[in-house]
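task queued by scheduler; priority normal; single chain, no ligands, no partner chains; default sampling; output format set to structure tokens
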Amino acid sequence: MKIDDAAASLEALGNPTRLKIYRTLVRAGEEGLSVGRLQAKIDIAASHRERIGCSSIAQALGVSSWGTPYQLWEQYTGRAQWPDIGSELRVALGEPMEDVLRPFVAAKLGRELRRDRREYLHDSLPLIGHVDYRASAMNDEKRPVVDMKTSLGWGARHRFGADGSDEVDDDVLLQMQGYLLLTGAQTAYVAALVPGPELKVFTIAADLEIHNMIAEGLENFWWHVTNDVAPDITTMADANRRWAQHTAGMTVDADAAALAILEDLRDAKARAKAAEKEQEALELALKLRIGEAEALIGPDGKPLCTWKTQASTRVDSTRLKTEAPELYNTYAKTTTSRVLRLKGEKA
């Protein structure tokens, strides 16, 4: 390549998007990437803004451990930004780790694995999927789906059960059922690398009842997206996001149901306060027995609890504000939040 041509090529790469594309294609190697797969790795592809990815099925149906339907609705309706996962280490390691695990998974399954570069779209549901691998078929079956989970996070111990079982959490189960719904395959294998490290493989069989539940749930969620109607608020965090600011002077008349809820809340707060006092009294009783020691030892010689000194460093904001007000004002930040306070309750 001539110097001038090389310089022009390097100049053409001189923006973040093109550099991301180049880096992603280099990592993909000779097998390359489909356009849909490339878009999915660099950013949320346009198709993912018009359809629901299989990894988001559980969230759309309200059974995910990682988010709520309302939070997903905010993203699809432009009220919240899509998460930028491209720079996360676990994502960067994803496909290279999949290639490392590939021969081990193939040996464990006794099947050949091939990369699947297709973008699967459902013909009637707003569903899209990108599968990691397809396994070789046996006995005229449709090639099974193989999905790799390679993050090695400690949470994996809670997401996956016994090796060789179908014990995966709802997020993974619904993701696999989504793949099976899209591909028509009858079996999906989940190869999970868990801390140890240990490779576990789980078998998920296609389930028509779950497919029907997915279809109904996705249609319901997508109705909320296309009609710009928020899904039901089910968490305190979502309520705070949905109504972050109050409208001055606006009030709501209490009906019988609201009055009953208010009374139940007062009772719950009173019980919580009593429980807090009881907890403090019990902690004090233990501390009186521990004294200056660092631990309370059980009959088996093992610690039952510890009471150790620990240090923490904090900025003395009062002193900073007094002695360096300009510096304080430079870094001071005002935040707002709504506080639910019952009348007669101390502030």
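post-processing summary
- The chain is about 45% helix and 10% strand.
- The radius of gyration is 27 Å.
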